[in-house]
Amino acid sequence: MHIQIAKTAGFCMGVRRAVDMAIDAANKSEGPICTYGPLIHNPQVLDILEEKGIPILNGIPEKGEGTIIIRAHGIPPCQQKKLQDAGYTVMDATCPRVIRVQTIIRKHTESGHHVIIAGDADHPEVVGLLGYAGSTGHVISSMEELAALPVFEKAIIVAQTTQNTRFYEDMRTWVARERSHYKVFNTICDSTEKRQNETMALAKEVDLVIVVGGKESGNTQRLAEVAMEAGTPSLHIESAEEIPRDILSGKKRIGITAGASTPNWILRQVVSTLEGQAMTDSPMQAWIKRTQRLLLSSNIYLAMGAAALSYAASTLQGFDHELRYSLIAASYILSMQIFNTLTGIPSDRYNNPERAKLYETHRPFFFFLAGAAGITGLATAFQAGIFPFTMLFFMTLAGLLYTAPLLPASFSRTHIRSLKDIPGSKTILIAIAWGVLCVILPSAGIRGSLDTATLSAFLFVAALVFVRTAFFDVMALQGDRIVGKETLPILLGEERSRRLLILLSTLVFTGIFFCIHLSIFPDPAFFLALAPFLLIWMLCGEISGRIPADTHLAFHIESLLILTGILATMIKIPTLQNIW
């Protein structure tokens, strides 16, 4: 069974902007916050906002206080004025695409045009648009309603931004023939158009289309309509709990798309549920997937990557590696990552619900495993010498105190009381810790000195791990923002973070050849350039939508760390050394 996810599935720009504004306001503001009407049409997101202390205000009181957020659909201007007069600080989260339509209507209403809006009369966006048109506004939802309107001397036609593109095209053709003096504006959001076109194409390639999103969401309803128009069986659900147990019976290819107000974590839950059902079809495939998930969720696979990267770093520096340093790196990473996962369960409920459930169910076992790994690492480091032990001891202490409040609330005028509160600190500190574990400790412990090769290997390891960690932070952006984490992608933004990761991966790739040219690394070290090259390929594939951001991608990215160890063994092969 093959699952194909639409490239455009999930939050659109306007919805993402509105949700981010609301969550950021809840994380930073000390006063009361509410939204005027539902912020978006997704019940799960609205429940989360309620939990964050952002209730929905459906009426306008005479007096109010605090911040009120205007929903992504927009509201009539008279209502916005009433909110301001009531004493609220108004935060406008109206989608910029909707604001564009509002501006068009306001401009032409002032010049005496009638305004014809193609949309659903009771949809919040249309209600808001009508507020800008006043008495000259008319809402139509069919060709018959359009033809029944009087012939106006001056009129414009706009569409609800989530309107069905086929219907609007038919309407534009009719207007060009029957009302050629009308001005027609293409106000359907390009994201809406792309989703509908992609859903139509997807429906022709699969046996079933599952549309994920709120039942009250207009754009999600349109996607379900488009799928049915294609003649492919379709199912509109709000969450994974609504998926029937026998949904995969007789199906080989499943297509998944989602409305503009559907968060990524709900998509992941749907995909995970379908993959779980599909496991019963092939025992071997089921075993492989379960093994992958267990290795990833338990952080055992990541610890193996740390051991391999430690070996690769020593090989780059040109000295024989001692396996105990791989054990130190693996033990520390396993211990700290498990502790990090245990403290990150709240965000994992959105980013990785399977892992959150695993750690909640087996919390005592993972505490034991983390403790045992930590003790093993310290004991091995003690045998290696006082310097490795001292370094690892303080690194362990720093890791355990990462989330602990180090400053009393009265001492800090900002929200920064612990290391975790420093924006982007986790990604940077993890990269540095890996560099110390995999490069500094072995070099100082085995050779007793550091040189240019050590610095170069440190940068190679730290940059590779930085890209790996930041990429997973990008994938977890929505969940991290909800729980108030200050990760690097939240600080820089998703697009800028992706560009930074591509740039760093490229620098790692070219840096290997630069170090070979300067004789810092041995000539066969070019084999290791395969790891950053594959990382660039995966990042570009995920950005373009060719590679879905799922468990398989996560497994492949973690595999790159193990690949460095495998590639490093090729540098040691005598015949290759003689050739070069």
Describe this entry's structure for a reader.
The chain is 61% helix and 8% strand. The protein is α/β, with parallel strands linked by helices. Helix 14 packs antiparallel against helix 15 (353-361), helix 14 (345-351) runs antiparallel to helix 20 (477-483) and helix 22 (494-517) runs antiparallel to helix 23 (530-544). It is elongated and about 90 Å long. Mean pLDDT is 86; it is low at 575-580.
Strand order of the largest sheet: 1-12-10-11
Q: Low-confidence stretches at least 5 residues in length (pLDDT < 50)?
A: 575-580
The SS-based structural class is alpha/beta
Total E-strand runs: 12
- Helix content class: 55-70%
Q: How much strand content do the residues show?
A: 5-15%
Mean pLDDT: 86
How would you sum up the major sheet?
A: 4 strands, parallel
Q: Report the radius of gyration as a whole number of Å.
A: 28 Å
Overall geometric form: elongated
Please, how many helices? 25
Through-space gap between termini? 47 Å
What's a concise summary of this model?
With 580 residues, the chain is of the alpha/beta class. The chain is built from 25 helices and twelve strands.
List the helices and strands and how they pair.
Blueprint lengths: L1 E4 L7 H16 L4 E4 L6 H9 L4 E2 L9 E4 L6 H9 L3 E4 L3 H15 L3 E5 L5 H10 L3 E4 L2 H6 L6 E5 L5 H14 L4 E2 L5 H14 L4 E5 L5 H12 L4 E4 L15 E6 L5 H15 L4 H16 L1 H18 L5 H21 L1 H7 L1 H9 L1 H22 L1 H15 L24 H23 L4 H24 L1 H7 L4 H5 L1 H24 L12 H15 L6 H22 L1 H6 L1
Parallel strand pairs: 1-12, 2-3, 2-4, 4-5, 6-7, 6-8, 8-9, 10-11, 10-12
